[in-house]
Amino acid sequence: MRVSYHNDHSGHLDRPMEYKVYGHAGRPLLVFPTSNGRFFQYEDSGMIAELQGFIEAGKIQVWTVDGIDGETFFSKDDDLQHRIERHQAYFRYISDEVMPEIARVSGEANGGNDIRPLLTGCSMGAFHATNFLLRFPWLGAGVIALSGVYSTKHFFGSSLEGSIYFNSPLDYLANLQDGQVLRQIRNLRLIFCCGQGAWEDEMLEETRALEAVLQQKSIPAWVDYWGKDVNHDWQWWRPQMSYFLERWLAG
Q1: How far apart are CA 132 and CA 150, in angstroms?
Q2: Among candidates 114, 127, 157, 156, which has minimal Cα distance to 34?
């Protein structure tokens, strides 16, 4: 398996940002880490080994990026606007710095074809992947979100001031009226999954709430609930990812 490590200075964040790329060709898979996670988490958790067959067959090329949750959603700073603006800068890093690099590398690896990435993540990574794709649907092809929450209330309380609102999918998606953006979202291939076991209560509640909003907006999505033995943990996210990825790639 081809693996490369990168450490580039981000102009939007004014700090070094690390990431790794696994594989030589295929659909780009952009992975956001769980809460306070790092770019190496996907490998350390066993997920790269889980997806090895897809990677070595040239079906996917996995991009695992760093997060900055400690400066944003999990920061102890009382200045909520400073925290959310730091997150906005992180999303600009993804959209303006990471995405063009994915397009360049993927184009070279796939014979010049422009293949938009599939976004994914577990837990907080599911939140970031979903939030990014819904805000910038023209930049991705779909999402596989496992055990996510989909509002900002867990991090910013009841505040929806400023950019907080525009990072709370359950709020902004429910109120979205822009026909062009809705058409772009409806053309995405969306998969959401949550277990019903230990530590999944908040995620289960918000996945159900998101399902209701998606239905209200006539946005096609596969929302799947696994059993009461399925916990909020990597031992379940690994088989879930293989299961859904195989079906997403098959169309």
Answers
A1: 11
A2: 127
- The SS3 of residue 36 is coil
What domain range is 19 assigned to? 3-250
CA distance 213 to 233: 26
- Structure tokens that stand for 153 in this block: 């209330």
Could you tell me which of 164, 20, 3 has the C-alpha nearest to residue 80?
A: 164
Give the CATH number for residue 129.
Answer: 3.40.50.1820
Q: Phi first, then psi: give them for residue 222, nearest 5 degrees.
A: -100, 110
Q: How far apart are CA 44 and CA 40, in angstroms?
A: 6
Q: Which two tokens stand for residue 249?
A: 């790639």
Structure token digits, residue 88: 């906005």
Q: For the chain, what is the domain count?
A: 1
Rg (CA), the chain: 17
pTM higher than the cut 0.70: yes
pLDDT tens-digit profile of 167-216?
999 999 999 999 999 999 999 999 999 999 999 999 999 999 999 999 99
DSSP state at residue 59 = S
* Tokens found for residue 119: 């976004």
Instruction: Give the 3-state secondary structure of residue 220.
Output: coil
